[in-house]
Design goal:
Blueprint lengths: L4 H18 L3 H5 L7 E6 L6 H4 L7 E6 L9 H13 L4 E7 L3 H7 L8 H13 L1 H5 L4 H21 L2 H9 L4 E7 L6 E3 L20
Parallel strand pairs: 1-2, 1-3, 3-4
Antiparallel strand pairs: 4-5
Helix pairs in contact: 5-6
This protein binds cobalt (II) ion.
Cobalt (II) ion (CO) binds next to α5.
Length: about 210
């Protein structure tokens, strides 16, 4: 594990050398542009890096990460990334990837005060309120937390599907498909929650925009 800032810079040089040894034209090719097929919305947690855990190379995944992989409709940073990804890059798949043991979800499940962060955690608390009866019925705290992580991912998939310009893309064709995945820190495996949304019709009618 890199411990000092110099380790990171030295690590970069090693990575460049290794990469060039295996693929001499790697950087020449990447420098001409990107055409990733995937947008990844994940947690900022340092243990869940999109490309490493999917064995994907630079250039394959457009990435946005924040605490607890939240999609908020007033987050212009996230919306700009999503807009560019679907309108310009024309990504085919958007993956919302959460992870068990997520500190953000754990914090939201507690009644502790986290100062400034409480404003962000509020969005995760909203998910608890929406699914209160299901979550309250799970006695085991670890299992309740795991389910809360999953429900948070599902709600963020729904939030993405509600974005007007994503629905516009569906008017023109079949993409993007929005997927919900959960990652386990314990074994390194990703699991598809099978909650993908690919059209207006799969969305609560309240959020459906008229087709143009
Ligand atoms: Co997390």
């Amino acid at each position: 594990m890199s411990e000092s800032i110099k380790d990171l810079l030295n690590g970069n040089v090693s990575w460049v050398n290794n990469t060039l040894r295996h693929t001499p034209d790697f950087f020449n090719k990447l420098a001409t542009g990107q055409s990733p097929k995937f947008l990844w919305i994940g947690c900022a947690d340092s243990r869940v890096p999109a490309t490493e855990i999917t064995n994907a190379l630079p250039g394959s995944i457009f990435v946005q990460r924040n605490i607890a992989n939240i999609v908020v409709h007033t987050d212009s940073n996230l919306l700009s990334v999503v807009n560019y990804a679907v309108k310009v890059l024309k990504v085919k798949h958007i993956i919302v990837c959460g992870h068990y043991g997520c500190g953000g979800v754990q914090a939201a499940m507690s009644n502790d005060n986290f100062g400034f962060l409480d404003n962000w955690l509020m969005h995760i608390k909203d998910v608890y309120r929406m699914h209160k009866s299901e979550l309250d019925s799970i006695d085991d705290e670890g299992k309740r937390m795991d389910r809360y992580v999953e429900l948070n991912i599902i709600e963020q998939v729904n939030n993405l599907a509600a974005v007007s310009f994503i629905q516009e893309e569906w008017d023109d064709g079949e993409f993007p498909h929005i997927h919900g995945w959960v990652y386990s820190l314990k074994d390194g495996l990703l699991r598809d929650l099978d909650v993908s949304i690919n059209s207006h019709d799969e969305l609560d009618q309240v959020y459906q925009y008229k087709k143009k």
